[in-house]
Design brief:
Low-confidence stretches: none
Bound molecules: pyridoxal-5'-phosphate, 2-OXO-4-methylpentanoic acid
Helix content: 10-25%
Length: 341
């Protein structure tokens, strides 16, 4: 298979149409057998549930080329499970986990020419999603749904790649207590659009959201969880019912303990203690681990001791170990790597 002629090292985090996508439709209580199509467009009734009441959920994972030339995916079973939880919370039918894994595998295989080569710094981002497709005008769940998967080659989520970013404490909330912050629903991201545009206009790369009820505890950003490193090298990550359970963050905690012998803590993190941490990073499929150099709270600057030039030393070790596992040059824990071909 010949790779596409793409300047892999210089692509950003954007959409590039690839050759094939997967589609399965749910009607009269069952999913059809599904399959690949070349048609990237979705035609919907004007009153479709997704268009009127935002009944849509999604996932995000990546495929990588390993050093020995295989194409692999990182923990797709975890995305399949999280999508089940998202579907249940939005009253949507569950797309079976084994079918999810088959669908993403088929889609990546069909777009193998777009999987960036090893060492290019780019990866193939995989976007599974599902939405209510039939007309709904009273507020209720749809009866018909479409599950789809597309892929797009991507580079770093933040401009500058591994350079530390500056973020602000947001005045807006991302998720309500007992709301939908813990699932991957499009509505959470719609909530964050005004906040991210505001942050960008003020020169910040991202928002730090605090808990909506008390505004004293650190939650997450618009597209990633936080990790903090204490001055005695402990990895601390916020625990909250209203943040997305990041697969990257859960993998990092495992890697920290089992590969690097570091202590980890998943607990409530008060905003007041952020000034005492040595390092801070954003973690997620898109963000990988992006270092934070400075956090600005209404004009008060918190400058992380790791500085604005490079990742802090512990963040760097975590980054190298995690990406080493994903790219296949560090042995992965059992079941983390799914070989596509
Ligand atoms: N938090 C939010 C709001 C996200 O959108 C994402 C991205 O998926 C994450 C965290 C990171 O999750 P994961 O590591 O599973 O990609
Ligand atoms: C991901 O990391 O997969 C996400 O969904 C985050 C989004 C900002 C692209």
């Amino acid at each position: 298979m010949e790779k596409k002629q793409i300047d892999w090292s210089n692509i950003g985090f954007g959409y590039m149409q690839t050759d094939k996508r997967y589609v399965s439709n749910y009607k009269e209580g069952r999913w059809d057998e599904g399959g690949l199509t070349s048609d990237a467009n979705v035609v919907l009734n004007e009153c479709a549930g997704v268009l009127q009441y935002a009944q849509t959920i999604f996932e995000g994972l990546k495929a990588y080329t390993t050093e020995d030339g295989r194409i692999v995916m990182f923990r797709p079973d975890m995305n399949a499970k999280r999508m089940v939880n998202s579907a249940k919370r939005l009253e949507m039918p569950v797309f079976p986990e084994e079918r999810f894994i088959d669908a993403v595998t088929q889609t990546v295989k069909a777009n193998a020419a777009y999987v960036p080569p090893y060492g290019s710094g780019a990866t193939l981002y995989i976007r599974p999603y599902m939405f209510g497709s039939n007309p709904v005008i009273g507020v209720k769940p749809a009866d018909e749904y479409q599950f789809r998967v597309f892929t797009t080659p991507v580079g770093p989520y933040f401009k500058g790649g591994a350079k530390p970013i500056v973020i602000k404490v947001s005045d807006f909330d991302r998720a309500a207590p007992h709301g939908t912050g813990h699932i991957k629903a499009g509505l959470n991201y719609a909530m964050s659009l005004h906040a991210i545009m505001t942050a960008h206009a003020e020169g910040f790369a991202e928002n730090m959201y605090l808990d909506a009820a008390t505004r004293t505890k650190v939650e997450e950003t618009g597209g990633a969880n936080f990790i903090f490193i204490t001055k005695d090298n402990k990895v601390v990550t916020p625990k909250s019912d209203s943040i997305l359970p990041s697969i990257t963050r859960r993998s990092i905690l495992y890697v920290a303990e089992k590969y690097l012998g570091l202590e980890t803590e998943e607990r409530e993190v008060c905003f007041d203690e952020v000034k005492d941490f040595a390092e801070c990073g954003l973690c997620g499929t898109a963000a990988v681990i992006s270092p934070v150099g400075k956090i600005v709270d209404h004009g008060t600057e918190i400058c992380l001791p790791s500085g604005m030039d490079d990742m802090g030393p512990v963040t760097k070790k975590l980054y190298e170990t995690l990406t080493g596992i994903q790219m296949g040059h560090i042995e992965a824990p059992e079941g983390w790597i799914k070989v596509v071909e």
